[in-house]
Structure to design on (117 residues):
């Protein structure tokens, strides 16, 4: 003979199922953040370095005024590279995967912590 599930047991089961579903969603979000961070870091970083090196090679054949303009472009390119690196680390700090949560929180810059709160 099967016993009826009490309302408390039904609620408890519902919480367990919701918790499991939320855990799965969180894992998917974490995996996607990791994937995006790696694409930004691993794909765009080397490409930007390659473009910068190409600019360095082109500088030799330019007039002084054109070199000055190209230097401004290279400065902007370096700023973009810095922003993309920061973004990839904010999305998924590599220290989180390498060392765990506590070291990642210690590594996280204080300015970012105050903005996040």
């Amino acid at each position: 003979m099967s016993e009826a599930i009490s309302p408390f047991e039904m609620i408890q089961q519902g919480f367990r199922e919701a918790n499991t579903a939320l855990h799965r969603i969180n894992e998917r979000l974490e995996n996607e953040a990791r994937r995006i961070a790696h694409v930004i870091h691993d794909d765009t970083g080397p490409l930007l370095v390659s473009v910068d090196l190409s600019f360095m090679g082109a500088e030799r054949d330019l007039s002084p005024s054109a070199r000055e303009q190209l230097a401004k472009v290279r400065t902007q390119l370096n700023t973009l590279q810095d922003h993309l690196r920061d973004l990839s680390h904010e999305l998924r700090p590599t220290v989180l995967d390498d060392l765990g949560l506590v070291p990642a929180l210690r590594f996280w810059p204080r300015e970012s912590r105050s903005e996040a709160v």
Remarks:
- The radius of gyration is 24 Å.
- The CA atoms of residues 108 and 114 lie 11 Å apart.
